[in-house]
Recover the amino acids of this structure.
């Protein structure tokens, strides 16, 4: 394999073989290296994803070139995905840059408006060989200004109507996940509505389902950050065993961002605190890259069940 691919084939295989593909957010080269390096080592398919905020951080051309090189070197399926596209103009920008997959997020809009904008994006993207993810339901939590203070579960019957009227290739649903590090209040019991997932699958057999806000908030990284001068209080994530059960069902894509931020931040803080005289940026950024890679490998092997598929 020598180029980026769409998610179509990897999702078909994930659905058929009961595993999920990890979709990991990036905003600099070291994260791309960690993500694709973990995929290559575990022989897993993987999705590199970026939001419009990433494009504001750096020119998309840099990221596409790095992603293409990483995919060629890794020799496993690598897709490049727009996460939470706001409108058709944003989608056009990312497709033009070389992204092979896009998400249009109209979940905050009235239902008919969500259908209209999603169908518009599907029509444009499909003509160009790009696959589309839509969203129905509202996922609580805020990250990169994305999300909502209040979650709203996806209605299975409405989901079936939404897919039929838009033509989306995959659907992000709200069944209990949440954006950010502070997904739940202290004492609150994190729980995925797997019964809703089963109902959605029964109405939409074969359709890849996507989970946003699916970081587990690894307490090892929370402890490291707090030990070395940080302050992350009461951060709680989605239990790994629940994500693993979802991956065995219709969930073919699991989004992870917060866990990468925690791993990178903890490793950088640890190096700078233990070696206060270090000024070689490669030393602490490199440590962050390796920590992120370790955490992703762990997810691919134990949660996503994607290891060894390619």
């Amino acid at each position: 394999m020598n180029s980026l691919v769409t998610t179509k084939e990897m999702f078909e295989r994930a659905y058929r073989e009961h595993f999920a593909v990890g979709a990991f957010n990036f905003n600099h080269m070291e994260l791309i290296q960690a993500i694709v390096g973990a995929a290559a080592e575990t022989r897993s398919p993987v999705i590199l994803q970026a939001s419009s905020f990433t494009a504001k951080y750096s020119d998309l051309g840099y990221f596409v070139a790095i992603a293409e090189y990483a995919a060629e070197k890794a020799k496993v399926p690598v897709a490049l995905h727009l996460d939470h596209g706001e409108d058709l103009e944003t989608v056009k920008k990312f497709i033009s840059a070389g992204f092979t997959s896009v998400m249009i997020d109209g979940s905050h809009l009235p239902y008919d408006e969500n259908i209209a904008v999603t169908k518009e994006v599907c029509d444009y993207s499909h003509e160009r060989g790009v696959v589309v993810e839509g969203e129905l339901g509202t996922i609580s939590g805020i990250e990169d200004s994305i999300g909502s203070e209040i979650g709203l579960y996806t209605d299975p019957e409405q989901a079936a109507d939404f897919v039929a009227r838009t033509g989306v290739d995959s659907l992000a649903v709200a069944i209990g996940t949440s954006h950010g590090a502070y997904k739940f209040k202290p004492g609150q019991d994190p729980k995925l509505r797997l019964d809703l997932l089963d109902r959605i699958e029964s109405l939409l057999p074969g359709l890849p389902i996507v989970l946003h806000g699916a970081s587990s908030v690894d307490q090892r990284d929370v402890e490291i950050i707090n030990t070395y001068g940080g302050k992350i209080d009461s951060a709680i994530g989605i239990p790994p065993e629940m994500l693993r059960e979802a991956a065995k069902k219709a969930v073919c894509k699991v989004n992870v961002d917060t866990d990468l931020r925690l791993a990178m931040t903890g490793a950088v803080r640890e190096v700078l605190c233990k070696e206060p005289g270090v000024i070689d940026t490669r030393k602490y950024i490199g440590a962050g890259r390796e920590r992120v890679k370790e955490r992703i490998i762990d997810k691919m092997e134990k949660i996503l069940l994607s290891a060894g598929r390619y």
Summary: The CA atoms of residues 87 and 302 lie 35 Å apart.
